[in-house]
Amino acid sequence: MKNITVSLDNDAYRNARVFAAEHDTSVSALVKEYLQSLTDTSKHQQIELTQRQDALLKAITERHKGFTSSENVTREELYR
Fold it and tell me: Of 1, 30, 70, 76, which is least surrounded by CB within 10 A?
């Protein structure tokens, strides 16, 4: 298995962590699922998937506008 490094701004990372916690998974698992979905689907399905993911990310961002990078949330708090 190969490892990759991805850089995100603080808000995107925090939103991804919250989303992953709400769905009982990890950010790494979300990224893995997304990348696998790109290679497992047809072009039309890829476009649909990207649109759904964009809409979901927008909804997450709108829901969590109050976060700032100075508000550190512990892992335990995220999972509650």
Answer: 1
